[in-house]
Amino acid sequence: MFRMAMKLYRTKSGVVVESGNQFYILSGSWKSIINRPRLFQKLIQEINDSMASPMAIQFINNELLPPIDEQEVWAAGVTYFRSKKARMDESKESGASVFYDKVYDAERPEIFFKATPHRVVGHNQPVRIRKDSTWNVPEPELTLFITSEGTIEGYTIGNDMSSRSIEGENPLYLPQAKSWDKSAALGPCLLVQEKPLDPSTGIQLAITRNGADVFNGSATLSQMKRTFPELAQWLTREASFPSGVYLMTGTCLVPEDGFTLMSGDVIKISIDGIGNLTNPVE
């Protein structure tokens, strides 16, 4: 049977693949299964060779974990015009806005370290905002999985939680503005398909507070200036990732100036073909 796409889930009892509306449990660790070139073809072969055992979808719902075990998470910034404008606005008082203008047009992209696995949460798990920050936002980002050989083999949803007040104060504070406990969310699955994602793929962000919407926005991947292979090549140019690596690819869904997350808010990010990543805010 021809399959356009499959979804891989990491659960408490093992790795599960969804294919053709059926679910199978695979043998092997998360890193050993996903960190393979030509992953789509290899998964099809394993299912067809009956190396996977059918199972029920309830298994996933009850035991879902974030789709990461030993991988680092990195991120690319200023890959959309809207992100460039937001970064320039937040940093204008420090005089650093010119750097975001320059990097948007430069050959070399902005790429920075985001999180180790223990700082990453999954679907329906809480993210955090920094207690020493006054301006905090989610950043919904299509996230690539790149193997140790540098090939892009899958896609997931990422939430790059960010402190705009800290980053805007001084660009040298970027690590503190981006990385802390529960500052990144990934999930709910890893989408694996034969062809790259279509540029028309939609991304949606919804934030609710006390049951009411306080932000809604949507965009498409076609609004991104840089390509996925370009970003992957820069990330892996002088760095090795033995278990593979996740790369958040930037956002153009930025809440308006003055909006900040509050404890109790619920963030929902949706990407066509992948699903929904929902996280309450602690």
Give the mean pLDDT: 91
Radius of gyration: 18 Å
Q: N-to-C SSE series?
A: EEEHHEHEEHHEEEEEEHHEEEHEEE
CATH structural class of the largest domain = Alpha Beta
CATH architecture group name of the largest domain:
Alpha-Beta Complex
Largest sheet: 12 strands, mixed
Low-confidence stretches: none
* Fourth CATH level, the homologous superfamily of the largest domain: Fumarylacetoacetase-like, C-terminal domain
Helix-and-strand structural type: alpha+beta
In total, the number of strands is 18
Query: What is the oligomer described by this structure?
Result: single chain
How many helices does DSSP assign?
8
Task: Give the domain tally.
Answer: 2
